[in-house]
């Protein structure tokens, strides 16, 4: 009988000993909650697990267990391994090398004290990655992983890979793909996976439950947006019953705002523009806007959801931010009539019907932002049948 996808994932995790956990660059609450929860569970099973984040790592989630163990750099071994059969010579060998600059070569010289070596006594192989499994969480495609995918392709080709996600735009880029578009969050999906990994053992303790509830809470907008399903609420209740610190999550993620964040939100309110006929609003925040108030990229989190809730008479909101040489766009919709994932796809991005985003590399943010808004206007006009 063929194993289900979830059962395959359970078997792969149980058969592995050193696991790498990845998510999309600039991770959000669901990404952080999922990776840290799974790390703790894997370590409960007596295995090693590393979490690596790329981009901006949100400090707001530093209350989560294992947050301080997260890595922000990744180095893969590029060693070439030379193996010499010394049965005919003994193990006493002298090694040396010389450079032949004009030919761009390095000659390695091996001199045995006894006997002689033949070419067939020498073999050359590349070092293998130290990880025997890579699990990618809350990430719709390999490009959103960041530079690790392009800089260390052998890691993904030579190692078993698992993709666990809930985005409709997921490209099924791993060897084993578990994508549940009905789930409110990746953390929601992990609850049943962890239960299966436990085989009757309770692996979800207070710390794991708090990580999982963080992802559930942030991806549902504190259980206020349309991704809040009865199942999401049931699982949230189970996590709270297990000991998840719900009040801490609310206080740290939704209530505690540094002054720089409030100032950034003030900038956004100053910059907001409304397209009344097309029923959407848009906001741009330049690098100078962030610098003027001393805010980090992560401090924009929650802004777009707040705008969507408070601006009257709109169906969706677009937030454009300048982050170094990147235009970072976030889109939120109150109505399935406006599938913002399909809008994001026009720019190489993706997400859900009600929440999506995309990144564009550019050295002229203002010009590119204008082009993006003009294109979104065209899409909205076509959607509304307006010439």
Can you describe what's shown?
There is one protein chain. The strands form four sheets. Strands 10-11-12-13-15-14 form a six-stranded mixed beta sheet, sandwiched between helices. A five-stranded parallel beta sheet has the order 2-1-7-8-9, covered by helices on one side. It is α/β, with parallel strands linked by helices. A hairpin with a 3-residue loop joins strand 14 and strand 15 (355-361). The radius of gyration is 25 Å and the shape is globular. It is 37% helix and 22% strand.
Category from helices, strands and their pairing: alpha/beta
CATH arch. level architecture of the largest domain: Alpha-Beta Complex
User: Outline, from the CA principal axes?
Assistant: globular
Q: Specify the CATH homologous superfamily of the largest domain.
A: inorganic pyrophosphatase (n-terminal core)
Uncertain segments: none
Query: Spatial order of the strands in the main sheet?
Result: 10-11-12-13-15-14
Query: Compute the gyration radius: what is it?
Result: 25 Å
Helicity, as a percent range: 25-40%
Please work out how many helical segments DSSP would assign: 13
């Amino acid at each position: 009988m063929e194993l289900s996808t979830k059962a395959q994932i359970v078997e792969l995790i149980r058969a592995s000993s050193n696991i790498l956990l990845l998510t999309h660059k600039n991770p959000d609450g669901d990404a952080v909650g999922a990776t840290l929860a799974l790390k703790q569970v894997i370590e409960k099973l007596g295995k090693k697990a590393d979490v690596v984040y790329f981009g901006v790592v949100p400090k707001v989630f530093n209350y989560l267990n294992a947050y301080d163990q997260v890595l922000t750099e990744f180095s893969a071994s590029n060693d070439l391994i030379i193996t010499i059969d010394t049965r005919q010579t003994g193990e006493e060998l002298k090694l040396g090398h010389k450079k032949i600059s004009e030919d761009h070569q390095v000659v390695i010289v091996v001199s045995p004290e006894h006997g002689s070596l033949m070419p067939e006594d020498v073999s050359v192989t590349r070092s293998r990655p130290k990880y025997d499994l890579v699990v990618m969480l809350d990430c719709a495609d390999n490009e959103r992983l960041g530079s690790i995918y392009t800089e260390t392709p052998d890691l993904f080709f030579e190692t078993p890979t698992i993709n666990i996600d809930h985005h409709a735009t997921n490209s099924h880029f791993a060897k084993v793909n578990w994508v549940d578009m009905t789930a409110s969050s990746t953390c929601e999906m992990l609850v049943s996976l962890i239960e299966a990994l436990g085989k009757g053992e309770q692996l979800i303790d207070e710390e794991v439950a708090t990580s999982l509830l963080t992802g559930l809470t942030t991806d549902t907008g504190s259980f206020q947006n349309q991704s809040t399903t009865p199942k999401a609420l049931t699982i949230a209740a189970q996590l709270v019953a297990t000991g998840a610190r719900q009040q801490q999550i609310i206080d740290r993620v939704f209530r505690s705002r540094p002054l720089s964040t409030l100032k950034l939100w003030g900038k956004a309110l100053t910059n907001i523009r409304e397209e009344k006929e097309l029923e959407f609003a848009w906001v741009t925040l330049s690098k100078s806007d962030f610098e003027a108030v001393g805010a980090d990229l992560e401090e924009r989190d929650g802004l777009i959801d707040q705008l969507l809730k408070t601006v009257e008479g709109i169906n969706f909101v677009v937030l454009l931010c300048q982050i170094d040489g990147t235009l970072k766009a976030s889109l939120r919709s109150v109505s399935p009539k406006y599938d913002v994932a399909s809008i994001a796809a026009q720019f190489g991005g993706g997400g859900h019907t009600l929440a999506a985003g995309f990144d564009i590399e550019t050295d002229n943010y203002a010009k590119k932002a204008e082009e993006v808004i003009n294109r979104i206007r065209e899409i909205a006009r076509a959607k509304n049948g307006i010439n």
